[in-house]
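Researcher: Here's the sequence for the chain we discussed earlier.
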Amino acid sequence: MDKTDLWFIFSGDRMLVKDEGDSGIDSPTEKPEALGLTASFVMETGDLNGSRCFAADVGREAEAPEGMAFRDLRGMLGDIGEGLFAVAGRAKQIVGWNRNHRFCGRCGTRTGPGPTELSKECPNCGMVYYPRLSPAAIMLITRGDEILLARSPHFPPGMYSTLAGFVEPGESVEQTVAREVEEEVGLEIQNPKYFGSQPWPFPDSLMIGFTAEYAGGELRFEPEEIEDAGWFHVEVLPDLPPKLSIARALIDGYVESKTRL
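Model: Thanks. This is the structure I predict for it:
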């Protein structure tokens, strides 16, 4: 039996999904025009379980068809499967790249197709634009049976997570880990170890995960950026990020390593 296509249709940063109540997230299988929507951009972005996947941009003023809704992808993290999230995140980033590079940032000329499928080229100055990725370090700081967690003012009530920050020009990711921890909470770290990475389409990050050990210092932080931070025993933890996130994978991995001893 032929697989049906899957469409990841975006209005701004919100993605169109079937309104299935509590039964999960389901992307439409119809083209935008079949749903009464006008797409300014369409691109095939891969496949999921044998179904071809397409990204489409229908503009910020688009209204969802009956039985469907435009929802924020970040808000669906607790409802969406890992495979669907990966494809939806890729579609979101490609739609954003197309939207943000309609004009050349060097000379202002409208861009056209580039030398590869995922590229745009300025016909005036020759500048080529590829989808942008912003590398960011995300780190779990440990101290024996304790882990350092913090909360940002924009987190859901009660939720704590790991520290994170963007890599700056001229830095290695290991240097970013040390700098961010010192800047955000005033601590020194040692033995940074690579954990893994995750594409994070909010809006275009590549999260590069590390663990590191506490080496010294007293907690201090700016409330405007970090609302609270503290050491938590692995057996007494606050509300944590969704399981799809690398932040949660960092936490769960360390907790499991300590509690199985």
